[in-house]
Amino acid sequence: xxxxxxxxxxxxxxxxxxxxxxxxxxxxxxxxxxxxxxxxxxxxxxxxxxxxxxxxxxxxxxxxxxxxxxxxxxxxxxxxxxxxxxxxxxxxxxxxxxxxxxxxxxxxxxxxxxxxxxxxxxxxxxxxxxxxxxxxxxxxxxxxxxxxxxxxxxxxxxxxxxxxxxxxxxxxxxxxxxxxxxxxxxxxxxxxxxxxxxxxxxxxxxxxxxxxxxxxxxxxxxxxxxxxxxxxxxxxxxxxxxxxxxxxxxxxxxxxxxxxxxxxxxxxxxxxxxxxxxxxxxxxxxxxxxxxxxxxxxxxxxxxxxxxxxxxxxxxxxxxxxxxxxxxxxxxxxxxxxxxxxxxxxxxxxxxxxxxxxxxxxxxxxxxxxxxxxxxxxxxxxxxxxxxxxxxxxxxxxxxxxxx
Length: 404
Hints:
Layout: H1 9-16, E1 45-48, E2 53-56, E3 58-61, H2 70-79, E4 83-85, H3 94-105, E5 114-119, H4 126-139, E6 145-150, H5 162-173, E7 177-184, H6 188-195, E8 203-207, H7 216-227, E9 231-235, H8 247-258, H9 264-273, E10 280-284, H10 288-299, H11 306-318, H12 328-335, H13 340-351, H14 356-364, H15 368-372, H16 376-385, H17 392-403
Parallel strand pairs: 3-4, 3-10, 4-5, 5-6, 6-7, 7-8, 8-9, 9-10
Antiparallel strand pairs: 1-2
């Protein structure tokens, strides 16, 4: 797969017109409607690392109010979307509580679900993990968690510690968790490459999408983890960024795939599924429309053509400056440990996801005074280093005005 460095939106639009129109639907098939219900019982599965456990290729992200949306959980179960992802912090605990409410009403469902939750603590302390695990088990009315993650790791040193390894081994020996690992939104490739050398890491949840999956470093990282027997789950699969980059290029991409019977969102999911070494893909699906649309894409066995994948690569190159690729280890050479990547994440929720409330919640957790203290010279040097060409100074200013 070629990458077109330096491609402009104009170049992308020119190429899109001649890239080829590979058919994404079988002859006679109709475009997938978000309102229609896919056929139950045909969800593809893949093996999750060395565990040997088969999981559906589509995972239900539950960073939403599950107690008031129980029908989504029921429909997910019906469709075979039985990999459920939550965290102790989601919705202030309500996400886990809603899952527990569902298991209490349908106790037979627990054995069918590959249940994932996470512990987030800025220091990743084992004391916090003890507290969070006990809390999660109680909330979700279960005696065990299938996959337990240390949440939001920015560098492998945060988890490559004797006390964390020992904690995971104790939790598994006690039967409270079956598998142990971490999630990462930042410096993913470095985290994966280093984790491949840690025999006690069973699984990783990491940012992975059509924008970054074709880089050589990401390919090498995925290969290393798969060779080590680590199960991989993709997240942030839409490739949304701090700048909402639809515009003319996005419209052209949408028209290409809508003419073939898919929404752009479905195509981006299928691009991730084209990498067979990724066990599953986690998508936030808070309503039946999104769940049904994503499940329809997962159940459709038609693969993207080379021309379709190339169109996505070219779109990614043409809109690179709108997307933070999570490589904060680069800009931190100049900015220190200031969480510029987290600012971009907050802007992503506001611009790409349209979730202003969550964006403001994330931004409120950041050291705003330290961010404001950055000088123009620092920011200019960070921008010069950014492989994506992000306008870091401008975006920080926009975040302050919109989210503070």
